[in-house]
Amino acid sequence: MKGSLFLCLVLVFISCLKKDVVSQKYLNFDKNYVVMSSQDHVLRLNGGTEAQLTLDQAGGGAFQSLLKYGSGYFEMQIKLPSNHSPGVLHSDIGSDNVHDEIDFEFLGTDGPSYILQTNVFADDVGGREERLHLWFDPTLAFHNYGILWNSHQIVFFVDQVPIRVFKNLTSIGGRYPSQGMLVQGSIWNGEGWASNGRKVDWSQAPFQANYKSFGILGCQIGNQCDSQTLPWNNQDKWELNPKQQSDYENVKRKYVYDTYCLSPRGKNYRECHP
Ligand SMILES: *[C@@H]1O[C@H](CO)[C@@H](O)[C@H](O)[C@H]1NC(C)=O
Prior knowledge:
Helix content: under 10%
CATH topology: Jelly Rolls
Shape: globular
Bound molecules: 2-acetamido-2-deoxy-beta-D-glucopyranose
Number of strands: 18
Order of helices and strands: EHHEEEEEEEEEEEEEEEEHE
CATH class: Mainly Beta
Number of domains: 1
Strand content: 35-45%
Largest sheet: 9 strands, antiparallel
């Protein structure tokens, strides 16, 4: 067990238009994103098609999208630091005013497995943490982390496998993110946060996480973001398909080990007793 840190990651909306996905994959970082914290902690690689975020004692790198989105399917490829630190790779889409957020957070290792935490904030209410053990080592190669967000459901994907589904249950009193979201990525020191008091071992620094796939094909806020002509809003994206459903059941059975719905506070969340 070394230190703990957070690598914030990104959520990128990508449409399901196949020909676009290919070109979006190699899009330049600066086309859709801007560096938020310290230019010298965000390094462009491969002509700007890849970015490397660094965390050291001076701070961590962070970036966010130039625009805000209101729906989409977004995906980014990430490779966690190879120096095997129990890190948190934290990926979120956040909004400015009322706090809505949909995020991936990498909480480092727990024995041999890496922990991925997801959370959903709606109307400034979060606390919807869910944790699972990844079935691969995320430091060895790039993997895809994606989020579908339409007016019916939010689905978190890891390598196209659904790992979490959050339904729009506002009609029965649930909350659901509705604010325009920025796509953000960062790596940060998560000491004292989700680290069970473990400290960052700075002798292992710098910690470097790599990001690719900077295409964003979400719906820019202010447009008709619930339009069914957008591929991610299509009726076949309102629910998981049978293959996705069985993959999801498998993930829940084998890898998910902690969810807020099973904690005492679960009783306060409508979606925990639909
Ligand atoms: C959630 O679903 C309701 C219908 O049940 C719809 O009116 C509302 O716009 C949806 N919310 C969002 C943010 O899409």
